[in-house]
Protein 1
Amino acid sequence: MLHLKYSLGLALLAVLLAFTAPAPPRKTRLYLIGDSTIAQKVGQVFPETGWGMPLATFFDTAAVVVDNRAQNGRSTRTFLAENRWQPIVDALQPQDYVMIQFGHNDEAENYPDRYTSPADYRKNLIKFVTETRRKKAYPVLITPVTRRRFKNGQQEETHVAYSAATSEIANTYKVPLIDLDKTSRELVQQFGEEPSKLLFLQLAPGDHPNYPYGRNDNTHFSELGARKMAQLVVQEVVAQRLPGLADHLAKPTAKNAVPPTSTTKDAQPTTP
């Protein structure tokens, strides 16, 4: 009888401890919305890699969860029309982040199924920003990552109007801006015209079984290119001291080491 009472007492104590134990700290969820340059890729298109794929390796997974919702071929207009945005809004919690990078498909005038005028592009970015802040979460605008395009040995700017529109909205609404268009162009230029092919999906016939006839793609990234672009994003997270992200980086390894920044600037206002 004493043994039964003792067992019941231990069971009751365990239940009480379970209910009174402090809940683990909530992880910051970092949503990524955008196009194929960021998106998760299926095995059939490997080695094509979106820069959102390696991004998670740069953060302490005990504190930050990267939730990549980017989709191939989407513009701001089609991302909204396909109801890909509303589920994110519904799930947002205070202090979460939404990184927003579109432009490649918005500017595609030859593809009316995805093209978005600069005016509508601005309206859509404003919608993403205001609805993120309404949930007391943090928006971050990112200019569209560059395509590889050289002329006379110089990497050209490939998203003039849409990068300018992104920067304009960031400035008007006081949103942190990662100018990935600029930093990725500088990176491609540093590599040089021929070596920069290593950053993109450039394959000769027979190089990979997924591309038996080769691939000459100056938009989508190789594994190396995606990791380099993710490094540029994280470098700006650190430089701008974005709270909840900059203070939760993973311990450096050979794969996720972030090059030091040449300048360190204060974060732009991130009040939701």
Protein 2
Amino acid sequence: MSNFDEAAAFASAHEIPWPRDPAADPSRWGVHHGDPPPFNRLRGPVHVRGGVSGVIRVRGAEVFSWGEPDRADQTYSVAKTYLALLAGMAQARGLLVVGERVSDRLPGIGFDSDHNRAITWEHLLTQTSEWQGECFGMPDQVEHFRRVSHDPKPPEGKKGERRALRAPGTYWEYNDVRINQLSLALLHLFRQPLPEVFLENVLRPLGGGTDFRWEGYEDSWVEIDGRRMQSVPGGTHWGGGVSISARDQARIGQLLLDGGVHQGREIIPREWVKRMRTPCETARFYGFLTWLNVDGRMFADASRASGFMFGAGGHTVWIEPEREAVVVVRWLDGAHSAGFVQLVSRALAG
């Protein structure tokens, strides 16, 4: 019997209470229902999911898995971290400088107003941009006052109510419309569909990519250099987003644990990976589209060096440097995530 059996059994006994088939009971599936109308609808494809599954790697090797670790399921906001990896690749290619204003490099795509002109790539990557506008018909206001599980701020208003915007860089808000605007900006930098860039430059070099897809909305198409391309969201809030296996999620987690290097090849610059897990000044629990456990508030049983990718529906990728471990769990009810982390921590400690 493996030391991780208890954690896997615990996770499997506490599956997220969403139907596995989105069509079976649509009102109990997803997170879009909490949005103000007419924005409380799906705009991209969704598909049937599997049950609870997971993968655990220690010192670079997979030591445990359960469920269907090779099944590609939609992964919600875990995809945000993938945008941060693409941004690091863009900086390495000279396509962006993290501290520069987006409007200086990409005029005409929504960063030209007096308010938005001051927004830098760093603001977008730390969710402190306060970007104002519409991205494919979705206004930033839809996500005003949004609450997510690990946001320590007390409730300040009702979701979707307009609030006064702050100066870019001074206020943290989890806002999927702004994330989608970042994705659109990255598409204009690469001038190639982001799913192609990610598959060719990250997943395939890691030995993954089977059944991977990253889908956009029905109306999120743009034309660049005469080619029609779909801009993709940084999550599955309104459908679409990344479908990926737990094993591939673990491969990406291992890449971050190893400082962006795989088999001696630097896939993402080491300095960029370091920046991803550096707390931002406005929200010390957040880096570059990565959650941080710097004060132990997120999970008391994880080290203070831990980083996390989270997605609605119970998706967690936990990078635990002190134990040289990567832990992936999918479709776990978030109310029981602390119990799962505790059991895995105990098993890792031996």
